[in-house]
Specification:
This protein is mostly beta strands and 148 residues long. Helices cover 0% and strands 32% of the residues. The chain contains no helices and nine strands. It is elongated. The chain starts with 37 loop residues before the first strand and ends with a strand. It holds the Pfam family Filamin.
Length: 148
């Protein structure tokens, strides 16, 4: 007689469109990947330069190695907006393998405050208020790699 093939180990699976066997899976983005991260809002136009005592903002956009926005809050900070003293050496926030830091490249003491707001869409709004006249350079790094 004719031999029957052995039963498939998958015989119990239903087609993907079967509602009784649909499962939802949430996939989070990976850790921030500097080559895909970027800053916008800097530099300012010559007629729109920062003025001492007035807050200015720029945006930092964090992406993983596949270009996914970091939509979850990668920094365990309470409250959602955090004030950090912004000195020449560094202010940095670290969590889950991601380091996002802002560093002033300047020798003089900077008396100013920085506020980082998470928009929960991969974008962070950085607001800072310079109080001392002069030329400033701001480095934005992700995992110790400078982003532009």
């Amino acid at each position: 007689g004719k031999r029957e093939p052995p039963p498939s180990p998958y015989h119990h699976l239903q087609p993907l469109n079967s509602p009784s066997h649909t499962h939802q899976l949430r996939v989070w983005p990976g850790r921030a990947y500097a080559p895909h991260c970027f800053v916008d809002g800097i530099p300012w136009a010559e007629d729109d330069l920062p003025t001492s005592g007035i807050a200015r903002t720029f945006n930092v956009h964090l992406r993983d190695q596949f270009g996914n926005s970091l939509v979850r809050k990668p920094f365990e900070i309470e409250p959602e907006e955090v004030e950090v003293d912004f000195k020449p050496k560094a202010g940095s926030l670290t969590s889950q393998g991601t380091v996002f830091s802002l560093r002033a490249i300047q020798q003089v003491q900077l008396d100013r405050t920085i506020l980082i707001t998470d928009l929960y869409n991969g974008t962070y709004v950085v607001s800072f208020t310079p109080f001392i006249q002069g030329t400033y350079s701001i480095d934005v790094t992700v995992n110790k790699t400078r982003i532009s």
